[in-house]
Design brief:
CATH architecture of one domain in chain B: Up-down Bundle
Strand content of chain B: under 5%
CATH topology of one domain in chain B: Cytochrome C Oxidase, Chain A
CATH topology of the largest domain in chain A: Immunoglobulin-like
CATH architecture of the largest domain in chain A: Sandwich
Strand order of the largest sheet of chain A: 3-2-1-5-8
Number of domains of chain A: 3
Largest interface: A-B, 93 and 84 residues
Strand order of the largest sheet of chain B: 1-2
Distance between the termini of chain B: 16 Å
CATH class of the largest domain in chain A: Mainly Beta
Strand content of chain A: 15-25%
Structural class of chain A: alpha+beta
Number of strands of chain B: 4
Number of strands of chain A: 12
Order of helices and strands of chain B: HHHHHHHHHHHHHHHHEEEEHH
Largest sheet of chain A: 5 strands, mixed
CATH class of one domain in chain B: Mainly Alpha
Structural class of chain B: mainly alpha
Helix content of chain B: 55-70%
Radius of gyration of chain A: 27 Å
Number of helices of chain B: 18
Largest sheet of chain B: 2 strands, antiparallel
Number of helices of chain A: 9
Oligomer: heterodimer
CATH superfamily of one domain in chain B: Cytochrome c oxidase-like, subunit I domain
CATH superfamily of the largest domain in chain A: Cupredoxins -  blue copper proteins
Order of helices and strands of chain A: HHHEEEEEEEEEEHHHEEHHH
Amino acid sequence: MRRGAVLLVMALGGCSALYGPQSSAMGQGMESAHIGNLFDLFLWVTVPIYLGVMVFLALAMRRRQARVQGAARPEQEAGWRLGLVLFAVTSALILFGLSVATWFTDRTIARAGAGPALSVEVIGHQWWWEVRYHDPVAGRELRTANELVIPAGATVKVSLSSPDVIHSLWIPNLAGKQDLIPGRTSDVVLKVPKPGEFRAQCAEFCGLQHAQMALPVSVRAPGDFAKWYNAGLATPPVPGGGPEFAGYSLFTGRQCASCHNIAGTPASGQVAPDLTHFGSRTTIASGVLPNTAASLDRWIADPQRVKPGTQMPQVPLSPEERAAVVAYLESLK
Amino acid sequence: MSERTYLRDGPDLTGAALHDKLARTWGDRPGFWGWAASVDHKSIGRRYLVTAFVFLALGGALALAMRLQLSGPQKALIGPDRYNQIFTMHGTTMMFLFAVPVMDAVAIYLLPLMLGTRNLAFPRLNAFSWWMYVAGGSMLWIAFVLNAGPDAGWFSYVPLAGPEFSPGKRVDFWAQMVTFTEVAALAVAVSITATILKARAPGMTLARMPVFAWSMLVVSLMVIFSMPSIALTSAMLMADRMVGTQFFNPYEYGDALLWQHLFWFFGHPEVYIIFLPATGFVSEIVQVFTGRQVFGHTAVVLSLVATGLLAFGLWVHHMFATGLPRMGYAFYTAASMAVAVPSGIQIFCWIATIWTGRPRYRLPMLWVVGFIVTFVAGGLTGVMLASVPLDLQVHDTYFVVAHFHYVLIGGAVFPLLGAVVYWFPKFTGRMMDERWGKLAFWIALPAFHLTFFPMHYLGIMGMPRRVYTYPAGMGWDTLNLISSIGAFLFAGGVLVFVGNALWSLKRGEAAPADPWAAHGLEWTTSSPPAPYNFAHIPVVTSATPLWDPERPVTRGLRVEDREVLLTTVFEARPDLREPSPMPTLWPMIAALATTVLFVCSIFTPWAIVIGSVPVGVALIAWFWPKDRGPEGEPVVD
């Protein structure tokens, strides 16, 4: 199905990124697979048309020696006029065919979204992602940030909104993009047969750090997903001592707590990413850095150097205090 | 009928004596003030052309800066704040300050020559438009140099461009630049429409009108219908930002998507406003260099008209990811696909013309071939973008960047460069050097594809647009590096072209009136044309008047007053004598007053009230009734 694209790439000498975690050529999701098929159809139609026009042009240019002075004779024009009509009708029919194919693909994608098993809300902020899982059972609503975990095989409806500017959620391996528009809600349906790790990125220019607003997307086997979900609902224990406890005291006592939320602690800020299970995430600052102690230290030391313009301020902390905060956050598995 | 007797161009007055008198009547005074007061379409067209190419150079320099920053992952040459200004300025400059004005420039210079008249209609309005354009462009670039350049994209989507998320004056400079350029573009559009409809030479029926004039007629009408949309919406943005209206604030019953509808209702026709004049160039060039009238002349003209109409039904294809109703999307998919048909018809007609003609591969023709090779690819990726599901994947990625550079550079700039070579002798009296020109072509064409072809893959491989940096390990590094190298080579090709033009301006071979054995009326004038264009207004009996065995003229226009002949709209029968305005400084003064009003209104709404007084004074002086002698003189054949 992606053969068309793959063929063209091979013509270029091969290109492994086509198989990467942020590529629309793979079609690992229901929607992206349908779109991939449609893309192939378009390629198989348009590439021959392009080549045909080029051959036509080349032949026309080669004929120059054969010509005599003056305009074409009228009887010759009649043939060309017929050719023009045929050309126009053929191209209209081809375009009509492509429109119909488009329409059917669109219908198929729309129908496949019926009866979702899981409903997730993704809220775009400048410049991070808030994620909320809605569960019909009371008390099982899960909030997280900068990670989207979904179960393989299930129909997942992702509702999109934004409180600030327009963003766009694009998980190219799984589906097309959908804008997050203030004052409106839209949705995208994800249905992924197999587990995998992917990367989404904001695709609508949203200001200074539009370039660094990524979202790791993890598709897990249903059992693994349930395990992750239940772990996410648990409240992490307050550290009993050591640097983790020092970090806990700093985090809840200093500015951090006024923006961030960590369940089960006095930190209940709502304007920045929820950090309840921060230690289990793979990235920091919306996919900018890998989640390691060293990069977390770098991030806290000077957020503006890592992501100029980020809303996160530089909190004055000594290196020892920073190490404590890092130890605490990394312990929040 | 009249008491006085007027000196007329013939039958008694001919030759050198006539030329002297006409030159005195139509010429500008020497020096700066003569230049500033000029209402001659050639003087204004030249200025427009030079100004537009200056903006092209500026916008191109920004493109190179971006390609440097993106040549590898995580580069730190340009920070996000400056980068966002740079891509906003690049898009804004290229669309508003280069592409549209440059097409206007060629039309302003050439249309009166092609149509067989002595000046544009409303020449003072035309002069006014150039001052407005220069003022708006300068204001934007001065703001950018002072680190107050707009940074919300050339499309300025709200709420990002609104008062809450773009505080400061950056977006106001952008919105006000739009006001300047829309005033300029509307003024030119009105001038051109009136000229095409009423000032054609006797006998030049609509069917015999040059294809380029047809394209400019369609484009001017498109400007008149689409510009009010951006005028409205940029005014609403200014009001939201300055006086606290809430047109676009969803939390106060405004709507963020309203901006996109109004912007793209202008923005999509805009790309055809850029592209259609280029197809006009192609038709003219193909005709001359194949020695025959374009095959399917009627089909070509109808394609122009059809494109102009369809262009207004496509704007939603810029909004496929916004979640509007799917059934509505299907309509815009169909319309976006349909617009490919007229473009395809034109391509077919040009190739058929080459096939059945006797092509000479001089420089302008090379650019036409480069145009077809490039534009067809861009048109076909356009068909992909018309499809909603495909668009959801490639929208706002480098695939789209590749697509529109194929259609805007391949589809508009390549024909423009061909047109510059083709009409260079008319503009300057000298030929452009063929060998250096070929070198420029053979550098620019491959370099263009080297720059932009890899971007298709980058888009499919997940690289979004408008990013100042990207992480390593995404597999984008090599293609970005190739693209950056291509960009610098392409710039080199363009530099060779410009260098050749500057060298030829001074040293080029002197051009006769008609160096190409061309078909259009502009080639009956001297190279460069005299201030009055034609000593006698030509009479036209076919679509290719210079290839006719005879070149009849009409006589009897006044020579001591500026007078032009107006003809009927369809059949171009002589209709009226019309006085044509004399040089005056008032358009410049009015533009200056308007500039003060526009720039000051960025800082205080009171500027609109107070600033309108000098504008009013200037306009009253400009339009003060003039005694131009008795009217109603019968037309002399």
